[in-house]
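Shipment paperwork, digital attachment
Item: protein structure file
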Amino acid sequence: MSALLHQALVFYKAGDFARVTGEIAPDAIGLTKPEPQLSLVLAQSFIKQDLKAEAADWYCRAAGPMGEKGAQLLTLAADLYARCRKPSLAIEAARGAMRLTPSDPKTWDIYRKCLREYLLFEECAASNADLLRRMKAGDPPALALEKPLDHISWCAAEAINARITRMDGDPFDPAVRAARHTRPHRWGDRIRIGYLSNDFSSAHATMILMQGVLAAHDRTEFDITLFCHTPDALVARDSGLRATYGRIVPVGHLTDEDAAGLIRAEEVDILVDLKGHTKDARLGLVNSGLAPIQVAWLGFPGSGTGIDCDYVISDRIVTPETSKPHYHEKLCRLPDCYQPNDSRYRPLPAAADRSTLGLPADRFVFASFSEQRKITPETFDLWMRILRATGDSLLWLKVEDPFVRQNVLDAAGRAGIAPNRIVFAGWAAYGDHLARLQAADLCLDTFPYNGHTTTSDALWAGLPVATRKGSHFAARVSESLLSAVDLAGDLVAEDDDGFVDLCVALYRNPERLAELRRRLTTNRTRAPLFDTLRFTRHLESAYRMMVERARSGLAPDHIDVPAIDGPPAT
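Attachment content:
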């Protein structure tokens, strides 16, 4: 043991992490080959002070001499670099970890996350192709590598989606499900609904869509409770609308066992999980058996493999008849669209002027404001085909990081597109975002994971969205939304070639595009998509049909909710 390591350990064991980093690190930095243990002590001391990038540097140095054992440290370093927005270092560390342990799920997670988030299209396409080959062959380790949300973002094969085995926590126990169905239950005059989520804040995309439904629920027939594990930071960003959502019961501070006891004591008839396989879901809580009827809605666009829900709320477009064999849940299909849309609280500002956005007044602007992870290699390839066929058009993308922007420009260059045809945008407050959307000419969808709230926002702002038909729930959402605003026949292509042809045709026919914008503006107040009250009554009909089956002693089965004739009842 070197004297430097000895002194570092003395400081570290005394909890004096600042002295480790302040006195030992300057001497260690100059060493050609520091002892791995010294590098680890330094990394841990930086972590204790929440200095992520510095910790990652030392984890990388510690990993060097350790061979395969260093993969875990490189994976940790990649994650830390990603969290402190150092993408070039993150992907370098992730690649190093992959070379050492390519089958480790944690290594896989960070490597694939880097590929998706940093828009490294060629490397991502190669990785996708290799993984898809293994999945098609039924390779069990391949089916256990990815989390479901990551998986459906690039793989649109429902038969494969249904076989993914990885999840946060354990899959539900059929015996617990059976006990939930047979447990004595007191049904009341009003149907008791419990919504479970950690997104109860007007700042979250789920509530942007759903908060009008919470306001429109008929409290004479439905008792609504929100079981909330929303982080304090997200609650703090709420505009004040959270107070209008109704009765909120906090469960974030409780263990799954204690939260389950509290929820069961409320005797809800239907527990609606709004998370599914998304970040910070309480799947162990859902799988403990909370209500006689358990329903998945809105958070995860697909079957919740391993999650104990009786129904998935969907519609006939996102889950056609061919989807049924690939869902362990029964489908409860709403008549217009599965997605709620709030016309009560959603702002609709005037259009922003192009001059304030860095856009020329005389160029055709294709736009996409989807999350970066949705811009798959196949999506970008289609966009480049459109740009090559529309010589003076621009592509307006929401990409903020300089490293990622350069990756986009490099990929565009390889496709023969000049860098001055790509315009980048950053984050904007929600109202400002809706205003800037109106400055574009046409919104381009992403594949296979469509825009969901993104597409809804564009349509609400009066911006037409071009899409194509898909082959799983997430890939069919934009078609569902366009159908509910009576524009599917104009803006939904059959396939990739049709999508490119559609976008090029609209570029070449400004009169047709202008007519679509006029129809969209008119349909916003007439078509079902933004009729929050109509949607809520359909949703309540779904809940009634579920309860009627359960009260009659019938097992859950597929439900198609009939459409309301005429205006909805108030």
